[in-house]
Every structure is written in C-alpha cells, then in structure tokens.
Amino acid sequence: MGATLKSWLFTTDHKRVGILYLIGSLAAFAIAGAMSILMRIELSAIGPTLTDNPQQYNVWLYFHGAAMILGFQIPALTGFLANYCVPLMIGARDVAFPRLNALSVWLFWAGIVLALATFVIPDPPDVMWTGYPPYSTMTWGNTAFYSFTVLLLGFSSILGGVNFLTTVAYMRAPGMGWNQLNVFVWSIVVAFVIQLIFVPVLGTAVTMLLFDKYLGTTFFQPANGGDVLIYQNLFWFYSHPAVYVILLPFLGITYEIVATFARNRVFNYKMVIYGGFGGVLLLAGEVWVHHLYTAGLPDWLRVGQMVSTLLISVPVGLLMIGLVGTLYRGAIEYRTPMLYALGVVFFFLIGGLTGIPNAIASLDLHLQDTYFIPGHFHYVMAVAGTFAIFGAVYYLFPKMTGRM
After folding, report:
1. Domains of the chain as residue ranges with CATH
2. Residues contacting residue 106 through CB under 8 Å, at least 6 positions apart
3. Is 365 exposed, middle or buried (0-12, 13-18, 19+ CB in 10 A)?
4. What's the whole-model pTM score?
5. pLDDT tens sequence across 323-360
6. Please, which contacts does 393-402 make with residues 24 or more away whose CB atoms are closer than 8 Å?
7. What does the DSSP 8-state code read for residue 265?
C-alpha cells in the first residue's frame, strides 16, 4: 500500500497525473456544490434561514464561484482530460516535460488545500468571487487567501499550457499533420494559447489587490488617484477568455463522444477547427466589456464590444452546426456518455440564445443584476460544461479502470 501511495505521489505518468487532476477537481465540485445548496436554502425564504451573518453568505458565494471555475471546470478539462487523452490521441509516449506536469498538478492541489482552509481560518475571504475593490480591500476577510489561491492555480495552468503546446507541436506520431489531429486535441491547443495570453493579466490584478490591502498602495483607491475600473477591466480581460478555456475543451470532448456513438466522421472538420476554434481564438480577447456595460465606460467602447460580442456567436454557431451535422444520418447509440453529450447540445443551445440579448448594451442595462444573467451563465457554462465533464468520465471510465 505504501509503495502504491508513493508511486502515485511521485508519478510523472500522464494518465496518473490526469487522474490526480480528476480527484482534486471532483472534490472542489462537491464542496462548491454544497455551497450552492446552502445559498439556495438561505434564499428560499425572506429573512435569515441558515445564517443571519451576511459575511457567512459571502464566503459561500466566494467559494462556490471561485472553486467551480478555477478548481473544478478548468482543471477537469485542461488538467484531467488533456493529460489523459492528448498524448494517447497524438501517439506520444508521454508529455514533453513530465516533471513539469507533476509540478503543475501539485500546484493545483496546493491551491485546492489553500481554498479549503477558507473553512477553518478565523477570517475567511469575503470578496464574493470576483474580488472587486474597494470592498475586497476594506473587508474584514482575508483577501490574501483569495489572491494566493488564484496565483497558485494560475501558475499550475501556465505550466500545463507550456507543456501541452510543446507536446502537440513536437511529439506527434510520424506523419500526423495538424489536419489529422482529433477535435479534442485542437480544443486543448486553442484553450492553452488563451490561458498563456490571459492568465498573467488575472495574476497581475489579484497581486495589485494584495498590495492595496496589505502594503498601502492605491491602485484602486479613487481618493488617492486610483480607479476601481482598472481591476474590473483586468479581471474580465482574463475572465471572459476563461469562458472559452472551459467552452472549447468541453465542446471538443463532446465531439469525440458524439462521433463515437453516432459512428460518424466529424462534420466539416476544417470548418470546426479553423472557423469555430480559430474564430473564437481571434475574438476571445475583444469581448470583455459586455461584463461592464453598467460600469461607466465610454459609449464607443461599449458599442464596439457589443458588435464583437455578437460576432463571436458566429464561430460558436459553427461549432454547434458541426455537432448537429455529426449526428446527421449517424447510427446513434444512446449510451450514458452520449446522453450527457446530447444534454450538452441542448443546454448550450439555450445558454447561447440567452447570451444574445446580454450582448446588446441597451438590453443588458436592464437585465443586469437580474436572475437572467446567472441563468444564462449557468446554462451555457455551468450545466453544459459539467455535463460534458461527467460524460467524458463515463466515456473514459473503461480505459481508466478496465471495467464498464
């Protein structure tokens, strides 16, 4: 038993590293899910239900939002699935930098442990999940925990990006060109390009937050020449591209499941790769302002990014056409992974269509701070993405365990 535990703790095998990512991400999912249940119970009746302490509710909200995205979905997709599938799909023996891969998974676990310490320290983070100043620099809570957790998970993601982009570029089987790669491999490549570009921006934002609260800087203090909009722009300049870091891999693995259980080739492969993934990559960094329509930004910027937000629905639409086209005239077998994949198509369709009014500034001004916004987000990312992850676990379970 001790030898087995040691072999897992010190492993550099990509499949084992992937399973370690899966265990950590499912733990984050379970606890963050419990936080969402506590919030729903608290909101089920007027007045205090479970707690009369607003800060306690804020801690639940902080952990739910941050852990679901940074601790569950991104690590499950770009950690577990990338590690387990990409080397096998490109015919590589392992990733390019196995020890770096092991470091990335343990940085991820360190971030998970630090996040879980939220529930045992006397001053847990009270920053919602976005960390917006000035509240996060004035609150009683431990903002440093939020910042360090984000930085640990960010470093883990950057190491993974360097590793997998190198692996796909240089370790493909002889004769395997870029147009022979699985759709999922392409989705991981594009997701990690986005991560490498935008994760440092989030790291910068939370570091400035840390400095403002604990070192006396005034980046976000209007009275001393700072501006809270600096943080909001930096935060969403990463956090909207992060949507595509989740979206592209979960659609990529959905393509693999659908093509397998429909017994069909991927419909219009080059349209999916260059039109879908390529279009999202080009526009991912040009749409963050639709999160800030009510933040007092100039009209020319709001209108410009309203157009780019509407425009990004075109490559995303091409990805949906590819999925439906792959189903067309297929010999479909409705096994458990396929049922999850069809759920992804349904939920993502609803989420995508509800995103169109959010993209239009004149409508979003009225929809902002209503349940329409979390409803849209949870359809398009939370439910669709989680269905894809669980479908992938069922899909890969025989490979991982030797059992159906």
Report:
1. 2-401 (1.20.210.10)
2. none
3. exposed
4. 0.94
5. 999 999 999 999 999 999 999 999 999 999 999 999 99
6. 393/22, 394/336, 394/337, 394/340, 395/253, 395/256, 395/257, 395/260, 395/337, 396/81, 396/84, 396/85, 399/84, 400/15, 400/19, 400/84
7. P
